Amino acid sequence: MSDNYKIIKREYQGIKLKFVVNESTYKPDKFTRLMANSININKGNHVCDVGTGSGALTIVASKLGAKRIVSIEIDEKTEKPFLKNCKMNTVKNVRLVKSDLLTNVKSKFDVIIANLPQIPYFKKEKPLTYGGWDGTKHLCKAIKQASSRLKKGGELYLNGASITNKDKIIKTFSKYEFKAEVIGKSKTYFTKELANKTLPLLFEHFMRLQSEGTAKIYKDKNRLYYYFFVYKGIKGG
Ligand SMILES: C[S@@+](CC[C@H](N)C(=O)[O-])C[C@H]1O[C@@H](n2cnc3c(N)ncnc32)[C@H](O)[C@@H]1O
By C-alpha distance, which of 102, 138, 117 is closest to 53? Predict the structure, then answer.
């Protein structure tokens, strides 16, 4: 297959899917799985998937009964694999929009799904995974933008983690009139070496955030871990 594509198989909510991925696309991983298994879509819903990447969450939303989906992505390199994945999984009710989060989209949705970059770091080394100092840069902006693009009672499914300032996320949800809770979580084990392989001095940054009180890191028989979260915010107001 051209462009070094690899086919991978995944199953979410009992739906069997196939995806092509290559070096330049975010490969549907265990965080994608937690998001995909947490979302609730009603038949006929108008859905938006922010940071769609390979399109995994868009495809799940379509299979669960969404009528129309707007899929947002900032990175043009994901367009080809996204379109291939929609075709391979016979998903047609989708429009791909290039946008920084929801900036270029003005419609109103029943459901917004957002699995966004949230690595807390002290400098913008890899823009597509950078989440700002405490990891919440994109997450808080997405909550603010989603508040004016959801119908009353509409739902925002958003990723988060115990290392990305949970208090700030909860406060932001409440500031924009969402009733929010964590509806899914999974443990992610890591070591100093693993973290620093991702980004130099990332482990030291995690420790700094923990001492500042914005990150929570846990220990299980000397193994370190954090939690990946899925938040569900219901729009009130
Ligand atoms: C964590 S990946 C999630 C991909 C896919 N939704 C999934 O769950 O497997 C985040 C995606 O958001 C995209 N992204 C990063 N910053 C963005 C922004 N400001 N606006 C829109 N998309 C963005 C990245 O290119 C990447 O594809």
Answer: 117
Cα(196)–Cα(94) distance, rounded to whole angstroms? 38
Positions of the chain with pLDDT lower than 50, given as ranges? none
Atom nearest to 128 CA in ligand 1:
15
Compute, in angstroms, the gap from residue 222 CA to the centroid of ligand 1: 33
Collapse the DSSP code of 94 into the 3-class scheme (helix H, G, I; strand E, B; otherwise coil) and give the result. Answer: strand
Q: Where are the alpha helices (DSSP H) in the chain?
A: 30-38, 56-63, 79-88, 137-147, 166-175, 192-198, 202-212
Q: Count structural domains, the chain.
A: 1
In terms of residue numbers, what domain contains 45?
Answer: 2-235
Residues at CB less than 6 angstroms from ligand 1: 26, 28, 32, 35, 51-54, 56-57, 72-75, 78, 100-101, 115-117, 128, 138
Site to substitute for ligand 1 among 17, 24, 74, most atoms within 8 A of C-beta: 74
Residue 2 is predicted with a pLDDT of 58
Rounded to whole angstroms, the Cα distance separating 102 from 197 reads 32
Predicted pLDDT at 1: 55
Sole residue written with tokens 């997450």: 139
Q: Which CATH number belongs to the domain containing residue 177 in this structure?
A: 3.40.50.150
